[in-house]
Amino acid sequence: MSMLRTIKPKNARVKRALERREPQIVENEKTVIFVRGQSTSDIVRNVMKDLYALKRPNAINFSRKNDIHPFEDTASLEFFANKNDSSLFVTGLHSKKRPHNLVFTRMFDGRVLDMIELGVDDFKAMDEFDSPKSSVGVRPLMVFHSDLFDTHPKYQAVKSHLLDFYNGHALSEIPLIGGIEHVISITAGPLDPDADINDVSASASEKNLPKIHFRVYTLKLLASGSKLPKIQLTEMGPSIDLSIRRIQDADEEMMKMANKRPKVAKSDIEKGLGKKKKNIETDTMGDKVGKLHLERQDLNKMQGRKMKGLKVRPAKNLTSTEDIEVDDE
Question: Where is the segment annotated Disordered (predicted)?
């Protein structure tokens, strides 16, 4: 039985609202809600403050404490998500068993999709760096340094959450002017030689797996004497060291629906949107360009008798000297 809700619209206004929540070809910016639990620490509050500053204006900060425990009860998160039309959460908690705790939650269809719990091991606030800051609302360039983000299931989950958090996506080209102001660098330390890379248990997270280093740099372009400028990075903060604690994976059916892409009209496909057709692409001017693959042509079979001058005459067989005409002069 399907776990997803099916809502039948009662009027045109509700139908339009539901259509806006359906999968889109180009997704809009996701809103993140920062919520504090009953018990938090100064480190957790300052970390959430800086993460909120990097996400503005697509972020909502709840200043009051809430009796919320994401891994035990998700009712509060689902209520906040539906009320604020938000699909991402960061919950700050603190306890003796799990000190300085951050829980990243993703929602789908008003319900919890998956969660990941990270512990803050070291933190340096953005205010402690005497450097220029990026503008509000500018999307960062995200860089992941380590093969673990592509091979280990827990680090793959961290990468997926952080990319969703800052709405990151793959780019083939980077605009040099006015495109990027800051870079978020996420690095995983070297793997312990005694650690089992296939061990995804909770105990293996804090003992053997390396920490995640979250750094933010401002980007400045300098003259280099060539077309490509020289790039200078200056750390702007925050600087956060994180360790992986718990992960709640998504339900298989919900994840399948969350990754579903909308159907694209034929007219949109011809304009270059949707699934790319083989040997057909759209250039920078918006013109559709295609490639034709033909068989090898035999030039001997080409029709060349349309003009008298191009008529092919058979060669005469010269058998005697009588066939040769000699000019007496």
Answer: 275-329
Q: What is the pLDDT of residues 67-87, one digit of tens each?
A: 888 998 888 888 988 888 888
CA distance 134 to 183: 10
- Checking if the pLDDT of 266 tops 70, the result is no
Closest among 164, 144, 132, 130 to 55, alpha carbons compared: 164
Q: Please list, in sequence order, all residues whose beta carbon lies within 8 angstroms of the beta carbon of residue 250, skipping any fewer than 6 positions away.
A: 106, 113, 114, 258
- Give the CATH fold of the 29-251 domain: Rossmann fold (3.40.50)
> Residue 282 and residue 268: Cα distance in Å, rounded?
11
Token couple for 291: 């490639």
Q: Tell whether the model's pLDDT for residue 258 goes beyond 50.
A: yes
Domain boundaries, the chain: 29-251
Is residue 269 classed as helix, strand or coil in its secondary structure? helix
Identify the sign of the CA torsion 18, 20, 25, 28. Answer: negative
SS3 content of the chain, % helix, strand, coil (to 5): 25, 25, 50
Burial class (CB in 10 A: 0-12, 13-18, 19+), 324: exposed
Q: Residue 227: which residues within 8 A CB-CB, separation 6 or more?
A: none
219 or 18, higher pLDDT? 219
Lowest mean pLDDT, pick from 179-188, 208-217, 280-289: 280-289
Are 215 and 185 in contact, with CB atoms under 8 Å apart? Answer: yes
- Residue 28 phi/psi, 5-degree rounding, is -80, 175
